[in-house]
Amino acid sequence: MKQEPLPQIHLVRDTDLGVFAYELHILAGDFLRESEFNLRSLATSTGPDSIAIMGRNHMWLSDAVFAYCSTGDLHQMIFTTEYIGARAFLFHTSRKEDGYLFGDVLMMDLDTLRQDVKHHTLYPGGVNIKQKDGSAATVSLEKWHSMELYEKDALKSWGFSYPPELVAEWQQHYSTIFDKWKEQAFSYMPQDLEEWLNVEYMEAAQNPDMDMYRIPLGTAKQMLLYDAQGNGPDHGNTPAA
Length: 241
Known about the structure:
This protein is an alpha+beta fold. It has 10 helices and 9 strands.
């Protein structure tokens, strides 16, 4: 049966975020190969907010701030993904119980998030560098770009530095916009939203069977092995922060 299009913004309230993300990888697309990395990212997020981008073939989840940092991989994915049906999932952790993360999830079309990121992008103010002898420093972008390649290769590590005051302003903005989007959202039970996503995928499949959940081609055996090892959410091993 043909389903009506999903509303633009949809909300799942107070759910087990690890379980929701795990089932999302299985039911809504062929993302099982990426589930371990993304679930670990969700569990180890340095803040309460994470964002996942679901394209045609890939799902990438990281700290929400990296969606807004101009040098972040998640930021690059937001602006290079051309798949019209791409979606963004915003995870907000409100509490942790017995190692499980609970909170709200917003799902929206990627362009809704893209427009906000475009107007609130964070730009680096310098580069944090660490020498192999353990000494560390922050250099200007001009100094970084003037360094020779061999000088950069000799470093133990490096990373772009964002002014703390700008990050604090972004945190305030993100909290405000998240609450605003929640007010505009349509509420769903997690199983209803995921089933709807699955049906939508099956409608576009080559040989759809609307009475079945979509099991990604070639991953059914992986799923059985995954559960047999006690790694699925039903075994109580949802990653903990």
